[in-house]
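Worked example 2:
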Amino acid sequence: MILFSTSVAGSNRMAIESEAVKIAKRNGKNLKIINLVDKMVSVATELNKDLTPLTLLNLDKKVLDVLKANALHRINMEIKSTPGTDYIIDGHTAFWWKNGPISLLDINDFKELKPDAFITVIPTANELERSFKSSKEWKEVDIDLYEILVWSELEIYTTDLISKTLGKSNYLIGISENPITLFNLIYKPYMAKAYLSFAMSYADQNYSALSRFAKKLRNIAIVFDPRAIDLSAYKKYKNDPRITSIAANQTVRRDYHLIDQSDIVVIHLSSLVYSSGVDSERMHAHSTGKKTFLYFPFKNYSPFTPYFVDNMYRSESELLKEVKKFAQKIEKNRKKL
């Protein structure tokens, strides 16, 4: 299994990747991480010891392509020499550099690398801002938060294009996602995938009931939890309309992508509080053919409440029972392929 992992620089994606490696080891699997940029720097410093990950970006595109080709060749040789080992290739599909995009990897590169799937790790605006300010490499670079957010969007967009062309999936994962999600994507790709939808008002109770429910759901399916990306991070920049606008719009597109990469959408509503996010998500899920389940433990409701869902339940246990049945059908069909 080869998984290509990408994200904007400063996302600290290695944290979730490293945890997945630990889980793999506990389960008797051999999973390793190879950093593509580090390999490129290794090749480059054989010619010029002063080169760094940042100064690589100043090189002529043809020179950069040669370094990349050599690095990919070394990665392929390592993979071929270690049968029985699975790999996460950590890298970038593109960079945002000097106010513009730089393409790093193209279709031909991935045809050689042959990844089974892609993941794009998603951080929030304030996490990126904090990371870039504290980074020795990036803090002196002339790139503002707006450009960092554009770069983040560029990574998703480019990786989506490449993965779809190759007939592979690009899974978005929040930076704080449970690493078992990444482990399962690598070793149990046949499992059903579920998006967990809920109202922001849950934060008032510290998400306690939702967390208990999510834990049970993870025993049934691979779960994409939007809490893994700070949903309210964009509000920090209310005095900067440009940042607020792009970060808020990215939140919507991100959640729709999480729904699109799922088989099931599970909506958990334990309080009668209106949520435009939940309404939008269930309409998007239902209208794109996703199996949509709603937990709604109240006797009285509008005719609109069950309209955009397949099934509505007043009991968590009954909902989970039905989700399990549907998930088992999906797994059975995928294992036949």
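The first helix runs from residue 14 to 26. The CA atoms of residues 38 and 53 lie 8 Å apart.
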